[in-house]
Amino acid sequence: MSLQTEPKQRTVTPFRYDIVGSFLRPSTLKDARLKYQNGEITTEQLNEVENAEIVKLVQKQKEVGLQAVTDGEFRRSWWHLDFFWGLDGVERTIIEEGYRFNGATSRPETARLSGKISYSSHPFVAHYAFLKEAAGEDVVARQSIPAAAQFLFELDRADNKESTQAIYPNRQELLSDIVGAYKASILAFYEAGCRSIQIDDCTWGALCDQQFITVMEQIGVNVKEYANELAKLNEDVVSGLPEDLVVTTHVCRGNYVSTFAGVGGGYEPIAQTLLSIDNYSGFYLEFDTERAGDFKPLRFLKDNQQVVLGLFSSKFGELENKEDILKRIEEATQYVDLDRICLSPQCGFASTEEGNHLTEKQQWRKLSFIKEIAEELWK
User: Fold this and answer.
1) pLDDT per residue over 278-333, tens digit each?
2) What torsion, rounded to 10 degrees, do the Cα atoms 348, 354, 357, 363 define?
3) What is the DSSP track for 166-215?
4) Which domain CATH number covers 32?
5) What angle do CA 287, 293, 299 make, to 5 degrees?
6) What are the tens digits of pLDDT across the range 98-127?
7) How many domains is the chain built from?
8) Separation in Å, CA 34 to CA 28, 106, 124, 232, 260
9) Is residue 21 a part of any domain in this protein?
């Protein structure tokens, strides 16, 4: 079977060759952040460095041929916590132990409630406005935020459960306030000119991980009911948004200093629940290792949705074997038509400011490699 097909140009995200969002932080930016933490430079001086590096990054993304660009999450320390901290009623908290990964543990920080959740403003909106201006009119400026499900997941963790329940003894009120704050923030991005939102979500990677499922069941959590609650929360957030706002989601399986989380497991246990969420135009799914299982779960994908196959690892710099990639794409076409497939790395290159273990040169070469394969497939 030949995978080559007549080109069907995509004018909205996701594009045939795409990214998840974050990029390795350049040394200039890392040095500035360290100086800021040590009180050696002001907030304004840090912003100047961030602005300059984001402008360079946008240009580099254009040079490598990307049609959707991001600010690389250069103003963030985490892919998710910085967004949570910007919501009303949420505070940054130091805890005893960070997130556990395979052979590594992250910095011990979390987002904990200090009051009722709401939205009044968010620093990310101004950050997006800068990206939009830097991007110009020839590419899509895309904003990424962590999922509402991820926020609930954080508030439910053992370190935070007591404070969450103290402020929200009524679970439904908690869910309602999360939806309200999220909708308001997304509409603020829209007013700033955003027409492409990517919602990042690690919860689904956890809910198909056999180790995590076992632990949840041991503490009395009905995993299926919890998955349904998370799906409904995400769906409520993205329902009723402006029709010209493209909303996609990325499912992550752990991406910290080139490590992963859990023992893994295919998407089958959660596929129908996840892929049934309305108003997502595309799903960025990790398929770079056997930990993600086969492509059979893609049979639940809706006819109007794209799947972005994360067949390329952002965790290492070596390029994948092209023939192996083409073979895997052909396997995926047993369940979803090639025209509804796009390609990207399995995750960002730096979900936290530490970044994965590869060089910037390798990062850009990998994106060029993805473009090369995409152009070969859809020529």
Assistant:
1) 999 999 999 998 888 999 999 999 999 999 999 999 999 999 999 999 999 999 99
2) 40
3) HH-SSHHHHHHHHHHHHHHHHHHHHHTT--EEEEEE-HHHHHT-HHHHHH
4) 3.20.20.210
5) 85
6) 878 878 888 999 999 999 999 999 999 999
7) 1
8) 10, 18, 21, 40, 26
9) no
